[in-house]
Amino acid sequence: MKTAISTAKAAPPVGPYSQGIRVGNLLYVAGQGPFDDKGERVGETFADQVTRAFDNIQAIAEAAGTDMSQMVKLGVFLSDMDNFPVFNEMSGHRLKPPYPVRVTVPASLRGFDIELDAVFVVPE
């Protein structure tokens, strides 16, 4: 059985998708960019955008009853791979060992520089 997870603390969906879906003890979080709880783009710098994307992921995880320590997979989509070193350093401050597995790919994002998606374990 799947259950939709939503929170007013993260960017609202702009299409027919859920912020998160819980299936059993796994939570799948939809792509999150630098958008506030009203759907407005925030963050003048790349670092600001990373912070907001992580904040959105964290808010959805917490709404499902889990936290960042339970992340098992992180998808990273960057408009410019030259931003990878900044992202890598910042993610080291947000994530703790054992680190989630990760994939990082260049993406044609329009009007923003980063999008993250994630998979979490939800403790029973």
Characteristics:
60s Ribosomal Protein L30, Chain: A, 6-stranded mixed sheet, alpha+beta, 2 helices, 23% helix
> Number of DSSP strands?
6
Distance between the termini: 15 Å
Number of domains: 1
Which shape, going by the Cα principal axes? globular
Beta percentage is 25-35%
Notes on the protein architecture:
This protein is α+β, with helices and mostly antiparallel strands and 124 residues long. It has a single domain, classed as 60s Ribosomal Protein L30, Chain: A (2-Layer Sandwich). The protein has helices at residues 46-63, 84-94; strands spanning 2-5, 20-23, 26-32, 71-78, 101-106, 114-121. Strands 1-2-3-6-4-5 form a 6-stranded mixed sheet, with helices on one face. Strand 2 and strand 3 form a beta hairpin. Helix 1 packs parallel to helix 2. The longest helix has 18 residues, at 46-63. It starts with a strand and ends with a strand.
Topology of this protein?
Elements lengths: L1 E4 L14 E4 L2 E7 L13 H18 L7 E8 L5 H11 L6 E6 L7 E8 L3
Parallel strand pairs: 4-5
Antiparallel strand pairs: 1-2, 2-3, 3-6, 4-6
Helix pairs in contact: 1-2
What is the compact description of this entry?
With 124 residues, this protein is an alpha+beta fold.
